[in-house]
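Weekly modeling sync, notes
Attendees: AB, CL, MP (scribe)

Item 1: holo prediction request
CL wants a bound-state model with T4K before deciding which constructs to order. AB pointed out that an apo prediction alone won't tell us much about the pocket. Agreed to run with the ligand included and paste results into these notes for async review.

Input as submitted:
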Amino acid sequence: MTEVDGRGQDAVFPEIPAFPEPIHVGRPNIARPEEFLELVAGALDRHWLSNGGPLVSEFERRVAELLGVRHCVAIVNGTIALEIAITALGLSGEVIVPSWTFVATVHALQRHSITPVFADIDPDTHALDPASVRSKITARTSGIIPVHLWGRVAPVDELAEIADEHNLTLLYDAAHAFGVGQGARMVGSFGDAEVLSFHATKFFNTIEGGAIVTNEDEVAERARLLRNFGFAGEDNVISVGTNGKMHEISAAMGLSNLDGLDELVATNRQNYETYIRLVEGLPGLQILPVGNGDRRNYQYVVMLVDDDCPVSRDTLLAGLRRNNILARRYFWPGVHRMEPYRSLQPEAGASLPATEKVSEQVIVLPTGTSVSPDDIHTIVSVLASTISPDE
Ligand code: T4K
């Protein structure tokens, strides 16, 4: 089956896909299914399923210990964790944020009537560019929400310097960076607070889930109030709040997955290194280096399609999909091009050249425990044959 692609090239797609069943980005890693079921059975026996159960408390204790932070406040998902953290930290007015992120980072601000001000990224690292952040600061700026995108540690020292200089709050979106560390510090201990996501598609999951991690006692206390309707004790509501509580079944998945963390890293690392080795020989394609930290989770295999690739990014994506390889072009087209931001800030793209360029280049490839090195050989042969159908 031949079609003409966006670069005027013939793209040849197969009649029979390389994989009979779809192979996804985001297939959950489930490290210890039996341990999970045992923990769930215990919760059922206790008849204690939510609202401060023992599994959630144990989960919070273990995450705080692993990350070296004073507090872990477990939350129902990463998005509500962001919203609670934004309120607990008292953000208001304008907050500087990348457009090159999952839309939830920005929605969390918009839903609290805070104006997201988009700063550009460094095209080599995909992290928020400190120079662009500086250029966006106004008298209304109250904070910055950088993202440790793809599990790569953001430029924490430069961002801390900017925040100190301008008295801004620094809240990290660490949704991708559980288990990642730089020097002696783990992600979780930077800024005023960090927010984690434990969604099923993440390196480490609690089915749905998230957390606010912080060394600030007051921020943790406010977050705990906010996640439980503002209750400070039975019948004693002392502030507005929401329902952001993690439940026991999520904590059971979290506790069982914590026990298998090192194996998950080893599998992801092997997959990542296989991709690096095989993609190297293909023209115009490169895998984004995994990052600067010395502890990594290797959860995102981000492939960049350069201008000298013989076929377009979208042709490659179509080639993969015809073969049941459900790769993604995260986070195309950039949040500033999604509603309501596109309508509210139609000029935003003018100061985001790197975001706009990178968003046209990226394909995120499948990895995790359900993808084997053999699968990766097949995935990379599909890329090769989409680029050069005759070879
Ligand atoms: N900040 C950042 C930087 C984030 O990336 C995210 C979430 C957040 C904040 C917010 O955290 P949460 O509130 O989600 O905790 C998915 C995830 O739902 C989302 O958590 C994640 N980022 C985002 C990057 O990816 P979609 O809209 O792409 O999901 P969907 O339904 O298309 O699924 C993704 C892939 O995973 C598909 O190929 C199917 C596969 N999948 C998914 C699930 C749930 C499975 O194979 N099995 C499964 O159980 O957002």
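Recorded for review: The chain has two domains: 2-28+261-327+366-387, 33-259.
Action items: CL to compare against the apo run; MP to circulate these notes.
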